[in-house]
Each structure stands twice: as structure tokens, then as C-alpha cells.
What does this fold into?
Amino acid sequence: MIGALGRERAIIIGHDWGGAVGWHLATTRPEFVEKFIPINIPHPVVLPRGMVKNPTQLFRSWYIAFFQMRHLPEKALQTDDYTYMKLALQVSSEQPVFSEQETEAYEQSWQHPGALTGMINWYRAIPLSLQSMASNELVRVPTQIIWGMNDRFLARTLAKESLKQTVGGNGILVSDAGHWVHLEQPEIVNRHIIAFIT
It folds into this structure.
């Protein structure tokens, strides 16, 4: 994609799965990355370690193991008109960030054939992704982690541990924000992004 746009490198900014892809790119193909900003997503090798070290994180991440199963997760997520998925959108932030209209749009997209499987397959591919990344390989491109301090799924210690996977990376903890920090505190997040990339 970077090459198709006529660029040699790009500034990569990604939240959650977008950030996971960014971590992988910055680790395995750093020549394409000018700067990297992961938002509320740990380095992929950090999460499994975090679950071993911190039982609380294991509890928070139970769904990752559940998503490794075939067919059952898709059926469970469809239950009661996607109640669990809509609830996850509501409880994963410190303040409401998704309007009723936006939630309905998500629900409509989840109903497309194969949509849930496509989403869950990101989790099912985690083992393959980890195999392609050396656990001791550091990210050497300039990296700034932005993290909502009250993420209900990912403990803030994962941000600190992820910094150890970088050379000279820095981290920004944003208070009064959860997993959707870029939607909950957009002014703060944008200010840090602009300061880092300029």
C-alpha cells in the first residue's frame, strides 16, 4: 500500500488491531516505517507474557482463547441480536463514544455473511503472527505509545512492557479514558500525535 501511494516510508498510526498490524510492520519491515504510534495495543509478544505474569490480565483477555474455537464464538456473538458485542462497545470506554445510530450501523455490518468470522479470524491468526516475529527483536523506528489508562481489556502495565520492545520509545498515559482513548480524549491524543510527527 505504501509503495502503491508512491511513498518509500509512512508514519503508521493504529488503534487496537490497526496498532497490532503496525507493531508487526515496524518489527518485521522497519524500512517502510518512518514513525509509529500504537494506541491502546501492546506489542504482540508482550500480551502473552502479561497474561502469565498478571492473572488479572489473563482474566481480561479470556475472550482471545475463546475466539480460537471454531464456529462457537460466531454463534455466541449473534445471541440476542448481538447484545454482547453492543455491550462491549458501551463498557469499553469511560464515557459513551458510540451513538445509537453508530451502534446500529455496526450491527448492520456484523450481519453480513462472513463478517463475524472475518473479525474473529484476526484473533485466530495471532499464533501465526507471533511465529513471524522474533520475541527478542526490538522496534528501532521512533515509537510513541498512547494509552487510555482505564482500558478494561488491556492493563496499563502492557504499555510499559511494550516500551521495552522499542529502542528509545516513549509512552503517553491519558487519564479519564479507556480503550477508545482517541474517541474519548481526541484533543489530547491529536496534540500528542502532532507533536510527535512534526
Q: What stands out?
A: The longest helix spans residues 72-91.
